[in-house]
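Reminder to self: tokens first, then the designed residues, so the page reads top to bottom the way the pipeline ran.
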């Protein structure tokens, strides 16, 4: 393994994670998304504050960041680098140097990275999110549930990614601490599936 390429891949992945479509789209629309809605620079808040089109763009780009980071790491320095690039892109999204280290919660980026490493594992995590969201209408609870299930799933489906994946899952749950507090109080926001 070429150490220089390994480090280079991780650095590139981190700054790839820095790209924040919701912040950039918000600025283009004259809105600071970090000061509106939940204050999170992610898909759910983009939907609430900027609308459906902005939310879809945010979701696609954020997932793409995770996918590209893993593919880049694998191309430059092999499978192990790809896994660490997944974590780097996730960290870059959550703590982006380009935006004063204030980013999103990393759910879409983590999903993209997991899909690129093991698509079956990624789709299973997505299924957990989908079922929980459909049952409760709470996106945060779906994301937290998938993060909690991930270590068990990874142990059986992608053991080489287990420790890096646990780090991502733990950070994702930590970033949802405000949501967890609201869930415990029964005050968490719900999304509506009804057309307005």
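Designed residues (196 positions):
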């Amino acid at each position: 393994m070429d150490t220089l390429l390994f480090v280079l891949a991780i650095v590139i992945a981190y700054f790839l994670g820095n790209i924040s479509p919701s912040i950039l789209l918000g600025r283009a629309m004259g809105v600071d998304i970090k000061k509106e809605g939940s204050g999170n620079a992610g898909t759910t808040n983009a939907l609430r504050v900027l609308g459906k089109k902005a939310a879809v763009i945010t979701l696609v780009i954020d997932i793409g960041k995770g996918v590209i980071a893993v593919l880049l790491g694998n191309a430059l320095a092999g499978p192990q680098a790809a896994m660490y690039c997944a974590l780097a892109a996730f960290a870059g999204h959550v703590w982006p140097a380009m935006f004063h280290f204030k980013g999103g919660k990393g759910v879409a980026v983590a999903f993209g990275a997991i899909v690129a490493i093991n698509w079956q594992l990624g789709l299973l995590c997505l299924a957990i999110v989908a079922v929980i969201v459909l049952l409760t209408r709470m996106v945060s609870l779906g994301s937290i549930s998938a993060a909690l299930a991930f270590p068990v799933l990874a142990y059986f489906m992608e053991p080489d990614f287990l420790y890096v994946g646990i780090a991502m899952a733990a950070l994702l749950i930590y970033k949802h601490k405000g949501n967890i507090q609201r869930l415990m109080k029964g005050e968490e926001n719900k999304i509506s599936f009804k057309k307005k």
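The chain has one domain: 3-185.
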